[in-house]
Specification:
By secondary structure, this protein is mostly helical. The chain has one domain: Up-down Bundle (Amino acid/polyamine transporter I). It contains 17 helices and two strands. α1 packs across α5 and α5 packs across α15. The longest helix has 41 residues. The N terminus is likely disordered. Pfam families: Aa_trans. This is Amino acid transporter transmembrane domain-containing protein. InterPro entries: AA_transpt_TM. It is a multi-pass membrane protein.
Length: 441
């Protein structure tokens, strides 16, 4: 009966992407590396330096390595179970192990996470280009600094132009591998930020103006519980699991996916630590939760103001180029949620369905970002739960369920450890953040 039920579930799972026999083009390892790395190097990179202030340099680097290792383990779980089953999507894979409730849990988690992330990307873009107001202080955006206060430098108009002329052409691409060039540019922009930040830090070091670094946590300033609040930042940063199946489906050889994942993880570990180290070296304990705020300060020199503007603009463009890869899995999961039980062709080959869903998502994201620019904190708590589920808990749960009988004792022990770490650290982080928010109120 168990085998029959699994067969019924998998027969109803339709791929959202063209399979090899439907598309003559195969993705490349380089394209997969760019897309995976871009998914990981999103908005979270600007929070990395603040974690170094809490953790210290050595524990911070070790935590980056630990989360990267767990990410590699859980992605390997996903790839193995996808190869052993019949599904070609994350939700379908969970359906094989846990039925409709498992499939629904993945879809809801991905939709909440990715939709929230896309809104936050647009909010940050609006802040960079058009400024914001916090605690009664008005921060001008780059457009307002350069051109002044006009209707065409407002948030609504600036974001509309970005959405129409940068994001729309990219989200209309039907193959995830087609985003490899924009993803490569996105990574290059992250490297530009590192180059500028490291140059400024080394110049400050040469002139004796750098700040002292903490090698280990300073428990006179932070508590043990505060250390756990940094974990979700790294989990969110390394959480590319929702794009594993779309990228894997387009690779010429499925075995190449594991290589692409390890290369991407190595790149991101290096980028995360470089950003954290040099920004912390430059700003010290004055570093903000979003290091972009540190660069959003008036400089006394023309060169300093130019560097600040380059950092902010490069980061804004970086987010605009990360947007399509996150939109890809969001669109796929919404389509699978709505049309999973209907006899429909794959989304990429159904032009009316693809275009209407793409335009609706982009318009809705734009409207929410413009109407509710302070929604950031709501999604901070939401993302701490859903990202942990899609990245760690769901893959580990499949190993423990072991519907295909391929898990070894070592795999199950590792799965239990992953779930305990994920639930424990996220629970403590959410409780600590909730108490801190209550104190601020």
């Amino acid at each position: 009966m168990k085998a029959a039920s699994v067969s019924n579930i998998t027969e109803g799972v339709e791929p959202l992407l063209p399979l090899q026999n439907e598309s003559p083009e195969n993705g490349s390892i380089a394209g997969a590396v760019f897309n995976i790395s871009t998914t990981m190097i999103g908005a979270g990179i600007m929070s990395i330096p603040a974690t170094m202030k809490v953790l210290g340099i050595v524990p911070g680097f070790l935590l980056i390595l630990l989360v990267a290792l767990i990410t590699d383990v859980t992605v390997e779980f996903m790839l193995r179970y996808t190869s052993s089953g019949k599904s070609t999507t994350y939700a379908g894979m969970m359906a094989e192990s846990f039925g409709s409730p498992g499939s629904l849990a993945v879809k809801i988690s991905v939709i909440i996470t990715n939709f929230g992330v896309l809104i936050i990307y647009l909010i940050i873009l609006g802040d960079v280009l058009c400024g914001n107001e916090s605690n009664g202080t008005k921060h001008l955006g780059i457009l307002q600094e350069w051109f002044g206060m006009y209707w065409w430098t407002t948030r609504a108009f600036a974001l509309l132009i970005v959405a129409l002329f940068i994001m729309l052409p990219l989200v209309m691409l039907r193959r995830v591998d087609s985003l490899r060039y924009s993803s490569a540019i996105s990574i290059l922009l992250a490297l530009v930020f590192i180059a500028i930040c490291s140059s400024m830090a080394l110049c400050a070091l040469w002139s004796g103006q750098t700040r002292s670094l903490r090698i280990v946590p300073d428990f006179s300033q932070v508590t043990v519980l505060d250390l756990f609040t940094t974990v979700p930042i790294f989990v969110t940063g390394f959480g590319f699991h929702v794009n594993v199946h779309p990228i894997r489906a387009e690779l010429g050889k499925v075995a190449h996916m594991g290589l692409a994942v390890r290369i991407s993880l190595s790149i991101c570990v290096a980028i995360y630590f470089a950003i954290g180290f040099f920004a912390y070296l430059l700003f010290g304990d004055s570093i903000m939760p979003d290091v972009l705020v540190n660069f959003d300060q008036n400089s006394n020199t023309t060169a300093g103001r130019l560097l600040n503007d380059i950092v902010r603009l490069s980061y804004a463009l970086h987010l605009a180029l990360v947007f399509p890869i996150m939109n890809y899995s969001l669109r796929a999961n919404i389509d699978e949620l709505i049309f999973s039980n209907k006899n429909k062709p794959p989304l990429a080959s159904d032009t009316p369905r693809f275009v209407s869903l793409t335009l609706t998502l982009l318009a809705l994201t734009y409207l929410v970002a413009v109407a509710i620019p302070n929604i950031w904190y709501f999604f901070q708590f939401l993302g701490s739960t859903t990202v942990v589920c899609t990245s760690f808990i769901f893959p580990a749960a499949m190993v423990l369920r072991d519907m295909h009988g391929i898990s070894k004792t070592r795999d199950k022990v590792m799965a239990i450890m992953v779930i305990v770490l994920a639930v424990g650290t996220s629970g403590i982080a959410i409780w600590t953040n909730f108490n801190a928010s209550g104190t601020d109120l």
